[in-house]
Amino acid sequence: MTDELQSQFDHWAASYDADVTNSAAGASFPFDGYDRVLARVVELAALEPGMEVLELGPGTGNLTARLVEAGAAVWALDFSAEMLARARAKVPAARFAQAHLLGDFPPAFRRPFDRVVSTYTFHEFPLADKLALLRRLFDDYLRPGSYAVIGDIGFPNAAALDAIRRAAGDAWDEEYYWLLDETAMAFQDMKLVLDWQQISRCGAVISFKADLAL
Fold first, then answer.
1. Residue 194: enclosing H or E segment and its boundaries?
2. Of the candidates 157, 169, 159, 149, which has an alpha carbon nearest to the alpha carbon of residue 29?
3. Mean of pLDDT values over 193-209
4. Which of the two residues, 82 and 189, has the higher pLDDT score?
């Protein structure tokens, strides 16, 4: 991620929660179904008290708060200092650090976890970077039998994306949104099994697990 993008997120931090609430209430792009996406991520993570969870891109800590309420010990990484400041104030029980997710993680975070979760972050990365990051998470950060759950902006196919693009008009940002058919094809060689759940017109929750048959 560029310094310019980091600056944009730092600036957005002050209004992020209000923007999310207003967009979700109006069922508009990109946060249509936001609360349901977060709730489903927590449900699919199937957390038990004391589980150690790595959260990527916590933003202002909305998912983080739900994870802590579920009894998880949360370690969260974000590249925006201003987002992290708000997340720390909102969820003081979690452990936060600043890092670019495609780069090296801080030394204290280089350890195994019971789950990896993320919401509204992976769409910043091209598909190749998404795949590389997930491969690294399974190789280096997830305990055997553990898995990742990602809630993000996603569409079942390009036609669905195009429909939302037209409806969004000036609100549309061209980023690397998930497409189910594209993602399924890319993961055929990854030795990971994915489960896709379309939560809203533009919100999806994707679970990734190691393929035990391989």
1. strand 192-198
2. 169
3. 97
4. 82
Q: Which residues pair with 6 in a beta bridge?
A: none
At 84, the amino acid letter reads L
Alpha-carbon dihedral angle through residues 28, 30, 36, 37, given to the nearest 10 degrees: 170
pTM across the whole model: 0.95
Tokens 């533009």 found at? 202
The CA distances from residue 141 to 4, 52, 53, in Å, are 29, 11, 10
127 is written with which tokens? 């598909």
For residue 18 the two structure tokens come to 């209000």
In angstroms, the CA 187 to CA 87 distance is 32
Mean pLDDT of 158-177: 94
Beta bridge partners of 76: 55, 96
Report how far residue 51's alpha carbon sits from residue 54's, in angstroms, rounded to the nearest whole number: 10
